[in-house]
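Problem 12. The chain below contains 561 residues. Write out its predicted structure in token notation.
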Amino acid sequence: MKDFKNAIIECVPNFSEGRDMGIIKQITDEIEKIEGVSLLDVDPGKATNRTVVTFVGNPHAVIEAAYQAIKKAGELIDMRNHKGEHPRMGATDVCPLIPISGITMEETVEFAKMLAKRVGEELNIPTYLYEYAASADYRRNLADIRSGEYEGFATKITKPEWKPDYGTAFNEKSGATVIGARDFLIAYNVNLNTTSTRRANAVAFDIREKGRQKKDEKGKVVKDANGEPVWEPGLLKNVKAIGWFIEEYGIAQISINLTNMNTTPLHKVFDTACERATARGLRVTGSELVGLVPLQAILEAGKYFLRKQQRSVGVSESELIKIAVKSLGLDELAPFDPNKKIIEYQLRDMNAKKLVGMTLTKFAEETASESPAPGGGSIAAYCGALGAALGTMVANLSSHKKGWDARWEEFSNYAEQGQKLMTEMLSLVDEDTNAFNEIMMAFGLPKATDEEKAARKAAIDTATIGAIKVPYRTMELAMEVFNLAIKMAEIGNPNSVSDAGVGGLCARTALKGAYMNVLINAQDLKEHPEVKPLIAKAHEMNTASDAFEQQVWDTVMGKMK
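Solution.
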């Protein structure tokens, strides 16, 4: 069986309690008790009387934490007394699992089934499987399963087509639960300058994929040959939406579930909601994210709004996030803290990068210490990052140069390229040290028996090949930094030509330094079939870099005459 020790899944259970923080704390305490799980976010809502919890970890640890949380919620929450704006069917209304890394969707489905079986059989809570784990196509959609809500489930559960996947009798106190495996879902609310739920619903029906029921001239619902209502689809794929009034804020919102941000990005949802609200005499005043959001969604939104302004998108992550937050109005109802709301930043804090998170002084001191790592490989990668940063700076200055307005997009593309190079180079700073540590760990393996010796040798070879590939990748990226530096020296803002030149010299240091590390790490594996072609290509790049360096120098000095 596959070892899921290094796999990460996310779990986002929704509990039907958003007002009593004592109850919420008892539930989340159960999650935090489980080793191998990190609680990332707890997002209660008073009006919805619902709390969205997000945690991540090893799959086995996650489903244990989820089970304990569902068990505690069943003990503390009495659905017979529950009232709230959000549709719900149980104390733990829904509990999705989302693959993050080291695990496939199919494998995540199996963990969802394991959890659902245990909840149904051990807690006597009727449990349904949904999305990728669904036992039938008509059960894939959460809204279809939840239709009728808690109040209607005592009757619904007796129908053969709605027999639970696990558990049988309706649980009056805990209701029913839906468990499944799905893609990353963005829970997102758009704020309106109205208190009318009906008007908010009108906008929601305009934008959501399902749309609205078609009506004839007299306002009656049009039905098909089978007597079923005919639906007019909405504007956006992979979008679910309803309107509601939030007493806590005194406004109506469009509550949105975005199930595929690659098909329909967050900024598209926002802009479309703005357009349809305006068409109906309303105004969008801002928006809010419930739970966590992928970094990509925020960065793409930042780039989208910068492009609308005809400004360079090759700026830092923090600047893109700032533009996205202000453009989407994510801070209208509460401050938006990227470190708490962006999932990658939460995971980054769990696995903090040792080197790139240091101050410049601390990094220099760490390098100067008696420890062999960080060493030349990490420094080479950092030089490459600085070279990319300088090329990016020249591109951004050029895109905003007075009189060059028509060329903003050309330089924006170069700046975006430079940002990507800088980001990957920075990741290699820590990767090089991590690769060295992997080799040291392999050397520490036991070698008493022939079998242990063979396993140790294989582990050392594997770790060494990894340590060769890191500086080799630094060389590849340094070649691209060279190209960027040359281009910026040739066509960029003439006032910054020396900056482009220094960027090129940083690329040279990165490439030459990484080349040395490739050779020294490959000393004992020169003839290895995976290593030999890397060495050959490294020789080629090293030779080519001499011509690149001369081209940078000649271009810069020629411009400065």
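Discussion. The chain is about 50% helix and 15% strand. Students who got a different answer should revisit the alignment rule from Section 12.3.
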